[in-house]
Amino acid sequence: MQDFANADLIVIEGSNMAEAHPVAFQWVIEARKRGSRVIHVDPRFTRTSANADRHIPIRTGTDIVLLGGVIRHVLENELYFKEYVQAYTNASTLISEAYGDPEDLDGLFSGYDPETGTYDNTTWAYAGDPDAIARGLPERDETLQHPRTVFQILKRHYARYTPEMVQETCGIAPEDFEYLASSIAENSGREKTTMFAYALGWTQHQGGAQMIRTSGILQLLMGNMGRPGGGIMALRGHATIQGSTDIPTLYHILPGYLPMPKAGQDDFDEYTRLVGKKEQKGFWANADIYTINLLKAWWGKHATAENDWAYHHLPRLTGAHGTYQTVMRMLEGGVDGYFLFGQNPAVGSANGRMQRLGLTHLKWMVVRDFYMIESATFWKDGPEIESGELSPEQIGTEMFFLPAANHTEKAGSFTQTQRMVQWRDQAVEPPGDAKSDLEFMYELGRRVREKLKDSSDPRDRPILELTWDYPVNEHGEPDAEAVLAEINGRHISGERAGQPLASFGEMKDDGSTSGGCWIYSGVYADGINRARKRTPGQEQDETAAEWGWAWPGNRRILYNRASADPEGRPWSERKKWVWWDEETGTWTGKDVPDFPPTKRPDDPGDPGKGGVAALAGNDAFTMQSDGRGWLFAPTGMVDGPLPTHYESPESNIPNPLYPQQSNPTRVTFQDEDNLSSPGASAQGGEVYPYVFTTYRITEHHTAGGMSRFLPYLSELQPEMYCEVSPELAAEIGLEPYGWATIISARNAIEAKVLVTERMTPLHVGGRTVHQIGLPFHWGRGSAAVVQGDGANDLIGMNLDANTQIQNSKNNSCTILPGRRPRGPGRAELVEEYRRRAGLIPALHPQVDGAEGAPGAGPATGGTPHEVRGPEEATAVPTGEPSMKEMRNR
Amino acid sequence: MARKTFLDWPVIRQLRGADPTGRGTAVTSPRTRSTMPRTAEADGVVDSVCPYCAVGCSQRVFHKDGRVINIEGNPDSPVSRGRLCPKGAASEQLANSYLRQTKVRYRRPYGTEWEDLDLDTAMDMIADRFLEARRKHWEDEDEQGNPLRRTMGIASLGGATIDNEENYLIKKFFTAAGAIQMENQARI
Amino acid sequence: MSLLAGPEGPSADAGWDHDHERKGFFTDTSICIGCKACEVACKEWNRNPIDGNLEILGSSYDNTGELGANTWRHVAFVEQGQERIEEARESGRKLVSLGMPGIGPKSSGKRGATPAGDLSDVDRTPPDTPEFRWLMSSDVCKHCTNAGCLDVCPTGAIFRSEYGSVVVQQDVCNGCGTCVSACPFGVIERRDDGTVSPFAVREEEDPRRNTASKCTLCYDRLVDGEQPACSATCPTQSITFGDHPDLTADAKQRVADLHERGMTEARLYGANPKDGVGGTGSVFLLLDEPEVYGLPPDPQVPTKALPKLYARTGIAAAGMVAAVALSFLGARR
């Protein structure tokens, strides 16, 4: 965070930092006071814009065109950081002859299968001998002139992303584009650095992961990665949302970003080679070791070389099992029990109605929270009860509300957004029945194990053989530090048996060590809880390495080898961070070097050995299989190796770049409650003529579970509102601070109206685009201090294929003056607009062929897609059975 | 309160002392003269971290008689430097809001009201239901005969505001039980 | 200069024998992000009731409205178009040419203050006038040098503290409300009702009910060497707390810096000891006319004529002392 103050230019895009991360914003203010420039690109003028040098309003969902335009600008005008690009990126790498770019294929990359809506990425591969590629040594042309170099492909790919295209697509004036592009160019290079900050304004799109990639490409081209005041700051939104990704409660990964095995991956070696091959460069070459250590931590003496370290105890995936897939399964009756750990999906997840209906299909549910959140009371006072559609007597879900201990009532660690793990001490005991989730989980596990103790069923072996013996205090609370020690890892045998690992470098592949999350190894080195380090900032340098502990290995800036030139010298005095010290023969500097400490800058690397030994002295990107920063991503992204612009499925603007209107890999679910506006692809799109985008505000927190129950926060923003421009208000007849009803293809909600010049109509594609802002913190229940309609009721379960995250930022609606109807009138209103848009078959026969219908056949392993969306069929086909009846595909 | 003497009368203090206009020392009440911050009476103060967003602002938690009495920023943190946003500044109320639930609540199927339930009973009921749902929706293998070793009958959501150690135990136990549908805010 | 505050500062006149400077706030609205942490931290520390009926107020993002008995810090939100911004720049430029200080060395950084740093790189070209801006500003009790509320309080419930702040003693206040009309800023108010919970569920009664109520400059924190809750929490240090002379110097420096950068709309409020309240303990840097933020452009203490009244009051007081003394003598019999 402090590193913001080192930036010469801060571009905040896809984030409302001043509102969502006010305390971090102090560093932006510091930077500005020192004379740095701050640019805020956002559909709305927010409290961040108010404190920026310039606000550039953008049509939501068009960031790839804007940043693609900047990429073109720096390439065409040779403003990129040449030495950096040459040395540290894959610009010179040659790509397979079979690769086809969207520029040549009407918006699709090569390898697309319209049947499954997925890509086969083999044609995106590096060119060269397969063994050399595996060793991170593909064919290269250091002159960057070969037409198949990444550099030339990049140039061609973004050639049409001109300032005119930016204006036409994003609604951004040429002078604003020029200001942004030249600011970035002038504030990058040896002497200066530019930092990007983003948040959910990029993530929550169908194509959101590619927006982030675009800024990654730009930051690599400008030489801003791995350097002070540079990089891309992901401003995450929850106390340990980073930690819960590192040590995940996510279906698709194990701790330390090891993938969950998929059906058919029954050979342990094959599985680990898919994660990282022994011969590849960098730290992922040891994927097998990390996996073995995790399995040892979990199954202890039952994990042996003979049984592949209990690898076969792990369950297998057959596609995506994300939270939205789970809701669909609930609606089918396929899920009996559901646990909520401080989460409020009835308000906070997309398509609130389907979320709540899903909950009514459960047999039982456990809600662990501080307050009676809406997800605990949906059966009693939810919107579907209010409307008369359901009553408690019809809902069979057995509810257990278990009060939770809060952050002052238990000890443990949070990992904040820059990967820094910080320990909290316990202040008081939790009140009444309130318990920590640690105690709840430990106790549930203990009871389940007790009930199974006489079982001989092989299905129960993974539970019974699990290491599950943590020391507890007099209240039955397990010692969180003992859990942290297990995560850190320890020596199991040998001289140092029992001692904590100092780093993941000490992990062995022979079962003599264990560690629950390899990237956290070192947090408990020498038996010292380093997350609890609290040397005051005033007594430290700007790196403040003695406050908390950042993974990996307490590095504060990742890939910081790139802060020095290929010869190991700082790029400039002003921006020195980590450099090679010839006298001591080590890397040194203000941070823990993210590089083998004694590998000389001119070390050629040993390709025969693989792993860290194979890294050359200038392979700064130590996690990449070729040691380079990837401008072009041959693997890792399911929707293309380069970011390319598609319109949101509900957009009423035809894609100005390609006939392919929307991301061809996007995921959606067919259900009568999950309809979409056809947007520009069919006539009914005009029924929902306005764009709406959702967001959080300073005064509240996510679905309100930790803010709408607090009087002091509730009074600051008591009511749900929408933000509209004076132009739109005039067009519709909306009264300032009166009521409006917003209708999407999913639902209708009401909100107070804030008419404000902070909302700007944009001129795009020959039409005026009005964007409506909707904070999403409110929900309907009766327990909170304040309540209101939930913006997420308007949003569909339509996902990005890379991340399975929903599109909350770019959807279509209409808006009317006045409050929404009560009772059944609400559903009738929604129906009426669906009918007008042709989404309801009976009154509007479908004529366009309905190619969006899901194909037959089960999903193949690893294709996490529900329903692909070929362009012509964004409108939901008629007469199709609901996805509820279809298998997860 | 001690009995007032003539000389304690504010107006006399005003005339006798250095505050002839009667707007300072002369008019201070005994309570004012003994003013101390409530944190001075705390049994202790511990270092903590704000539970809201991911900036990770450091908090100092003052407690007395087993209750949190004040939470404020910790100036030692190099990240937050003692500052808190409105949510962080409200976190004492997060702990002490009059809406805080401290008892187990139970709602039977098709019931219309919450009921009380003993925590131990609740835990046992949940363990039984966990095993039943796990068995009922168990999948040994897929259609091709590949092992799956999983149950689809149990799901969870949450984790971005609970601790790393808690997430670790959830992931560990659910995975061992074959319950793969485990998700958190990171995908929302 | 009023008789009521001598050159030693207001607290010396109130009989305090101490060696510290007058304390106060400098609220730099040019870096306020409108987060309202000050409002919450204030309420949380002082355990003040919530305000209002939990409905949108109709004033941009402001839903607490104004300073009052329960809200001792209040953040105003003002949306402005280009024309108004140009006017503000012009009026600010004029003010400064009327005697703003030149650029001097920066005062030493406090906790979290930006180090002076080298500003030679700073772009000195005046920025284009933006088409739109959104002003945010955290208001608070001014802790006037000549405080009307203090002057008129008939019970001695309000006193001038050793820090120069003006503080209500709720245990003395009888809720007469005289002070309310004496405040030229409309800050002090009588607390009618309230606990922390919303009206609908209020059970316990606030013992401070029916007394006058306003910011104390966190008197109960200052006595322990802590700074007020609002300035301690302010994420961007838009609110700083400190010695009044230092704060005023910082404020003047900041105005000079902003003018250098072409932001000639910057000006100070409350820093002039010759104004109608003798200057305020809480100094503000504003980016437009005070009225825009809901502040009176020319506040006047209503007790300006007090010196004259004072002589007469003195005679009356002497008579009263004699009467009271007699009654004590009588009681001892």
UniProtKB/TrEMBL annotation, chain A:
Biased composition (Polar residues): 649-664
Cofactor: [4Fe-4S] cluster
Segments forming domain Molybdopterin dinucleotide-binding: 691-809
Comp. bias regions, Basic and acidic residues: 591-603
Source species, domain of life: Bacteria
Name listed for the protein in its UniProt record: Formate dehydrogenase
Sequence ranges assigned to domain Molybdopterin oxidoreductase in this UniProt record: 2-372, 402-445
Segments of this protein annotated with the region Disordered: 586-611, 645-664, 845-889
Keywords tagged on the record: 4Fe-4S, Iron, Iron-sulfur, Metal-binding, Oxidoreductase
Pfam families: Molybdopterin (PF00384), Molydop_binding (PF01568)
InterPro entries reported in the protein's UniProt record: Asp_de-COase-like_dom_sf, MoPterin_dinucl-bd_dom, Mopterin_OxRdtase
Molecular function, one GO term: molybdenum ion binding
Family assignment from sequence similarity: Belongs to the prokaryotic molybdopterin-containing oxidoreductase family.
GO cellular component: cell envelope
Record Gene3D superfamilies: 2.40.40.20, 3.40.50.740, Dimethylsulfoxide Reductase, domain 2
GO process annotations (BP): anaerobic respiration
Compartments, as annotated in UniProt: Cell envelope
Automatic annotation (TrEMBL), chain B:
Superkingdom field: Bacteria
Cellular component GO terms held in the UniProt record: cell envelope
Gene Ontology BP annotations: anaerobic respiration
Cofactor: [4Fe-4S] cluster
Keyword Protein biosynthesis: no
Residues annotated as domain 4Fe-4S Mo/W bis-MGD-type: 43-99
Provenance organism: Brachybacterium paraconglomeratum
Record's subcellular location: Cell envelope
Residue ranges crossing the lipid bilayer per the database entry: none
Example GO molecular function: 4 iron, 4 sulfur cluster binding
InterPro entries noted in UniProt: Mopterin_OxRdtase_4Fe-4S_dom
Record region (Disordered): 17-40
Alphabetical UniProt keywords: 4Fe-4S, Iron, Iron-sulfur, Metal-binding, Oxidoreductase
Low complexity composition bias: residue spans: 28-39
Family: Belongs to the prokaryotic molybdopterin-containing oxidoreductase family.
Protein name: Dehydrogenase
Transferase as UniProt keyword: no
UniProtKB/TrEMBL annotation, chain C:
Gene Ontology MF terms in the entry: 4 iron, 4 sulfur cluster binding; metal ion binding
Pfam family name, one: Fer4_4
Binding site for [4Fe-4S] cluster 2: C42, C215, C218, C230
Keyword Cell membrane: no
Entry note: cofactor: Binds 4 [4Fe-4S] clusters per subunit.
Keywords: 4Fe-4S, Iron, Iron-sulfur, Membrane, Metal-binding, Repeat, Transmembrane, Transmembrane helix
Residues binding [4Fe-4S] cluster 4, per UniProt: C153, C173, C176, C179
Chain positions recorded as [4Fe-4S] cluster 1 binding sites: C32, C35, C38, C234
Gene Ontology cellular-component terms listed: cell envelope
Cofactor(s) demanded: [4Fe-4S] cluster
Signal sequence coordinates: none
Domain 4Fe-4S ferredoxin-type: 23-53, 132-163, 164-193
Binding site for [4Fe-4S] cluster 3: C141, C144, C149, C183
GO biological process terms on file: cellular respiration; formate oxidation
Subcellular location: Cell envelope
Chain residue ranges for the region called Disordered: 88-128
Protein name: Ferredoxin
Organism field: Brachybacterium paraconglomeratum
